[in-house]
Description:
mainly beta, Mannose-Binding Protein A, Chain A, five-stranded mixed sheet, about 0% helix, binds calcium ion
Amino acid sequence: xxxxxATENGPYIWTxxxxxxxxxxxWKTKDPKKSPALTxxxxxxxxxxxxxxxxxxxxxxKYGYKWGDAKCELKACxxxxx
Length: 82
Ligand SMILES: [Ca+2]
């Protein structure tokens, strides 16, 4: 695996934030029933903007590290909790 670096103008970064079927945003865990709801939010203006199409949360370095929703199948750098 090659390293992935996000830069001010570089690609966005995936997080573990996911939208549930009921439309709620959570930090996804192994057991979906234990996935905590977001208690802090840092959405970019107008985001999340496609609730039924974009169900994964990413960070945009280019826009002040604000958050956006996007299609989960897009490839990008990622961060995760160990
Ligand atoms: Ca979006």
